[in-house]
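Incident log, support desk, overnight shift.

02:14 A customer reports that sequence design results differ from what the structure should imply. Their input is reproduced verbatim below. On-call engineer (initials T.W.) acknowledged and began investigating.
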């Protein structure tokens, strides 16, 4: 005979099953609206970048303008070969910088995550201390130009962002919560050294955390333009994409503001301004947007793995 508590549980489960479909529909609608609100701003930027400048000035921003135009993209692509080379420079810096960052961060974080490392407390504090008190821009510039002599080289765009204290702390915590000491001890019993254990055992089970840090590094390198402003001072060097787009915008603003003095007011008045800015946002953001789905699965696991432990 079924007890009263069991009958009560069955009744609760039946009531829950009757209510759940309605709630699922509601939650799906809410999540769908929230997702659309996140995507809509970028779609709106694309629409504005494809709007005719005169139409935008007369009608303002609209979801479906009366006249579309690719004039903004044509103005940007007037740089031609320089834009293509600049895109290649940014791609090279992003790939190399992300790989170097992953190597430095994972090895540093793995060392300070192991209890057998005698100086792990000191090096953990050293990484954390740089998050509170950094050396500053001037000492960093002196080191890069006077000691390392990396000015006007591609390495000046990579090394300043290659070792993030925040990424080290995140990966250290990930290693501590994901890689048990028993696995490391088992590998040592089987005769594996530290390097082999790290490459063959630790890294494969740490892909979510590595992908998360890799995505952060990739975004940092792709969006960086300040290091090019500091360390690139030769006109013949092709700057990264972000810095080149900023130069195009500054040159356009200069022409418009000084059109009357230069005697080219009519020509400058027809330059696309707002649409060019939106087109720059699209060109600078679209590659990362297309690459994000490849990181998404590992990225979500890396953010949630610590919350499901215990």
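02:41 Re-run completed on a clean worker. Output:
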């Amino acid at each position: 005979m079924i007890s009263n508590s069991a009958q009560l549980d069955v009744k609760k489960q039946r009531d829950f099953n009757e209510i759940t479909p309605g709630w699922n529909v509601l939650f799906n609608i809410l999540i769908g609206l929230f997702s659309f609100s996140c995507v809509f701003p970028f779609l709106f930027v694309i629409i504005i970048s494809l709007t005719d400048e005169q139409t935008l000035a007369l009608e303002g921003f609209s979801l479906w303008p009366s006249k579309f135009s690719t004039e903004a993209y044509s103005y940007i692509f007037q740089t031609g070969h320089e834009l293509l080379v600049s895109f290649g420079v940014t791609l090279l810096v992003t790939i190399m910088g992300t790989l170097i960052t992953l190597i430095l961060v994972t090895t540093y974080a793995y060392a300070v995550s192991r209890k057998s490392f005698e100086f792990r407390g000191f090096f953990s504090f050293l990484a954390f201390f740089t998050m509170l008190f950094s050396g500053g821009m001037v000492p960093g510039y002196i080191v890069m130009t006077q000691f390392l002599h990396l000015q006007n080289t591609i390495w000046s765009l990579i090394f300043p962002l290659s070792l993030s204290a925040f990424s080290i702390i995140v990966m250290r915590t990930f290693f501590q919560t994901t890689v048990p000491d028993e696995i490391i001890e088992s590998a040592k019993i089987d005769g594996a050294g530290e390097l082999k254990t790290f490459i063959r055992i630790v890294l494969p089970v740490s892909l979510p955390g590595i992908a998360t840090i890799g995505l952060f590094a990739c975004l940092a390198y792709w969006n960086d333009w300040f290091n090019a402003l500091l360390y690139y001072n030769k006109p013949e060097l092709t700057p990264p994409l972000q810095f080149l787009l900023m130069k195009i915008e500054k040159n356009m603003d200069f022409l418009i503001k000084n059109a009357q003095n230069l005697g080219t007011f009519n020509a400058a008045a027809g330059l696309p301004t707002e649409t060019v800015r939106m087109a720059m946002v699209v060109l600078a953001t679209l590659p990362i947007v297309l690459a994000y789905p490849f990181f998404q699965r590992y990225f979500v696991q890396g953010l949630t793995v610590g919350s499901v432990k215990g």
